[in-house]
Amino acid sequence: MVVVPAHHPSLITAHLLLSMSACRPILKVPPMHHPTTPEANIPAERRPGHWVLAELGKKVLRPGGKELTETLIAALPLRGADVVEFAPGMGMTAGLLLAQQPATYTGVDRDETAVKTVTAAAAGAIPVTVKQASADATGLAAESADVVIGEAMLTMNNDKQKQAIMQEAFRVLRPGGRYAIHELSMVPDSVDDSVKTQLTKSLAQAIRVNARPLTHAEWKHLAESVGFHVVGEYSKPMALLEPRRMIADEGLRGMATIAKNLLTKPALRRRVLTMRSTFRTHRDHLGAIGLVLEKPATT
Ligand SMILES: C[S@@+](CC[C@H](N)C(=O)[O-])C[C@H]1O[C@@H](n2cnc3c(N)ncnc32)[C@H](O)[C@@H]1O
């Protein structure tokens, strides 16, 4: 666990910046264009929240942070395996997976810029393929992978697509293969329908993505309905934009980059403030879930 002293300069800078009034620009600096960030052509107010964070320099875009990713990775038989990642995004997990020396790595993302970014970042000794496709129709051969992993991507797909993506993971895996997911969850399982509706609406407004998190019971039920056995279940608080989690995820250097970008990009800073305030308002009902699922050895 990374323990950061409360008085560390990066923590204080980021906290101060995020605490300042959203309406009071602190510097008049023209917005910079970063063509390497997906959907950078969409105005800041309407851009999907995860790409706003990516443009600010945030690399970890999943709700349970790097720690939950590492927990999932430890539960997967990666060495010498054929590994498929659904929605690698900016390639953060791809790097962690490749460090485990799989036989092959295949990324599947529907975003063209993400595909280019991961292709460039993952090039090395291990055979890497990154293709642009939807995770519910990858075009990959049946029973061609030992491991599939997908983070922070099922939540942004509707119920039908969630199921289709899980079915695709099941199809692509060899018998006995493992599928790890890391997603936003609603807590507790007994959460009221009116809270679910309000939460979904607030998230859509704040992150500009139709995010539809499920409860832990619903995530597990979905996986089991497709044929998977749940072999590992983990949860974490949803603390994506809390300074302490950000330091743990991005490191002090990454945090300094984000702090600088928050300072010079007021439109993006306003978006981050809105997202963080929404996450805080709903903190009692938001969480992160990690599941390790196994395709039965005989089907
Ligand atoms: C929030 S980002 C997460 C990226 C990365 N997994 C991470 O955790 O840092 C969501 C990513 O999912 C991709 N995505 C969402 N739905 C998808 C789908 N149905 N098929 C392929 N990619 C998808 C987006 O293009 C984007 O790269």
TrEMBL record:
<protein>
    <recommendedName>
        <fullName>Methyltransferase domain-containing protein</fullName>
    </recommendedName>
</protein>
<dbReference type="GO" id="GO:0008168">
    <property type="term" value="F:methyltransferase activity"/>
</dbReference>
<dbReference type="Pfam" id="PF13649">
    <property type="entry name" value="Methyltransf_25"/>
</dbReference>
<dbReference type="InterPro" id="IPR029063">
    <property type="entry name" value="SAM-dependent_MTases_sf"/>
</dbReference>
<dbReference type="InterPro" id="IPR050508">
    <property type="entry name" value="Methyltransf_Superfamily"/>
</dbReference>
<feature type="domain" description="Methyltransferase">
    <location>
        <begin position="83"/>
        <end position="177"/>
    </location>
</feature>
<dbReference type="InterPro" id="IPR041698">
    <property type="entry name" value="Methyltransf_25"/>
</dbReference>
